[in-house]
Amino acid sequence: MQHSLGYILRTRPYSDANVIVDLFSKQAGRITCMARPAKLRGKVQKGHLQPFRILQVELQGRGEMLRLSQTDERFRHRIPVANLLYGLYLNELILRLIPQNTSLDAMYRYYQDALQLLVESDEPMLVAMRFELALMDGLGHTLNLWNDDHNGSELIAGQRYLYSAGSGVLPYDANQPQPAGVLVSSDLLIAMREPAEMTMSDLQQQRQFLDKFWLQLVSKPFNSRKLLSF
């Protein structure tokens, strides 16, 4: 039996009485489990299996498919309707990018903080992008904002670079064969050193970079991202 704090990322029907639950837990990371929720009374209440709520959960069993045997709601992030899609986008990022049963305690805290910021933020895309950059770092794709990762040279203003997963920030030469990656300007990388000072143009470039990078990793656009402007 396992006990943990966690968030519901997604539920899917499995049978007349059971559902499959994708859970993001503090102790074990992303988990897929089975649940038999009750409408009114029971150890797993149907009303608890909603996103953006911190649950104390009890899991039973062994192997890949555990059984969610009990839920107790501890806190609810009351995200306004205007920002709900951004929260669902965060959920889809976790579902698509974080492997199952991979514990990323720092990402759990970043996710929790991002949800709470969405409760009051009038700039939800900025909240989402900051979470995405933290997720990149947590997955081992750290952006070097000071030097290229080929020979350690300081970034040159006005130059283009290539960010390649596994190799980092590389000098870009259109006349030479290049590894798979996403083009990024040194000006954007330099601007990202001071997030609070970034211009709208910088933020738009950052958004484009993130979209292209995720597409390289997952090969298919995120469904929730298609519904978000900016």
UniProtKB/TrEMBL annotation:
Keywords: DNA damage, DNA recombination, DNA repair. The keyword Transcription regulation does not apply. This is DNA repair protein RecO. Involved in DNA repair and RecF pathway recombination. One of its GO terms (biological process) is DNA recombination. The keyword DNA damage applies. Residues 4-70 form the DNA replication/recombination mediator RecO N-terminal domain. It comes from Leucothrix pacifica. It holds the Pfam family RecO_C. Belongs to the RecO family. GO terms for cellular component: bacterial nucleoid.
